[in-house]
Write a structure and sequence with these properties.
The protein has about 260 residues and is an alpha+beta fold. It is built from eight helices and nine strands. It starts with a strand and ends in a 6-residue tail after the last helix.
Length: about 260
């Protein structure tokens, strides 16, 4: 039996939900997000990586659980049925960003004043744009969205330097050893962390070059994976990088690495 399907608000996508169906979109809000922004300028990277701005950007990137309402009408009988479809909404208000910052344990909690200040700076820098405005009575609520699905910083910054990498790679190797049946003593683990950090610092010298090859109009989110494998391909031409990974392989796999 034929059915007519109506989506609440007239739109069915990952950003428009029943919560904000009456939103007035900006011209930029009507456009799709780009796939990724690659930051190749150290000053811009340092501006972006201030911790409140990183939290805001990552919260926008993770979105919020919401739903759309699907209304189906049987053509012959006129019987209507409704169904709530769960989605992730990536356009958020200031209040939602503040509340979500309390839920994400790995991110800095941000206050309303911090969000109001830093989201405008992110907007000036081109990382965020106002998606639209929702009127609730006489009160206007602005919603914001990241300009791209991903943001990639292509160099070390004062916020993410060698010390940060050592800490990150230490946590990564701990997680790996918890997951895989690989036994390392403390000295071997420290050496792997040191080598992993060294490999990342080497890659830092090539990231901007690879990022500069990206076409400016790319909207495909897979561009991130393409970027990383091109970076890996370029790195394999460097003898120091290859030697680092040979040593990592030897420490992790011992005699198995000789084959």
């Amino acid at each position: 039996m034929l059915k007519q399907t109506i989506i609440s608000g007239g739109l069915m996508n990952s950003e428009m939900s029943r919560t904000i169906t009456e939103i007035e979109l900006t011209e930029r809000g009507k456009q799709p997000q780009s796939g990724a922004i690659f930051i190749t300028n150290i000053q811009l990277a340092s501006e972006f990586e201030q911790e409140p701005r990183l939290s805001i950007s990552q919260i926008l990137g993770r979105g919020i659980s919401d739903f759309v309402v699907e209304i189906s009408v049987e053509e012959k009988t006129g019987v209507r049925t409704t169904k709530e479809i769960p989605i992730t909404r990536y356009a958020l208000s200031v209040s939602e960003i503040v509340e979500l910052s309390k839920q994400h344990k790995d991110l800095q909690i941000v206050t309303r004043n911090q969000v109001n200040h830093h989201i405008r700076k992110l907007e000036e820098l081109g990382f965020v744009h106002k998606y639209g405005t929702l009127w609730v009575g006489k009160r206007a609520i602005d919603y914001y969205r990241r300009s791209s699905k991903y943001v990639v910083v292509t160099m070390a910054t004062p916020y993410f330097d060698e010390g940060f990498l050592l800490d990150r790679e230490g946590k990564r190797i701990d997680q790996t050893l918890d997951t895989f049946n690989i036994q390392l003593d403390l000295n071997a683990k420290k050496e792997v962390v040191k080598l992993l950090t060294k490999s990342e610092l080497l890659k830092d010298s090539w990231r901007a070059m690879i990022a500069d090859l990206v076409r400016s109009d790319v909207t495909d989110p897979e561009v991130i994976h393409m970027y990383h494998w091109l970076l890996d391909a370029y790195a394999m031409g460097n003898n120091e990088y290859i030697e680092i990974w040979r040593n990592i392989r030897k420490i992790l796999f011992g005699k198995q690495s000789e084959g």
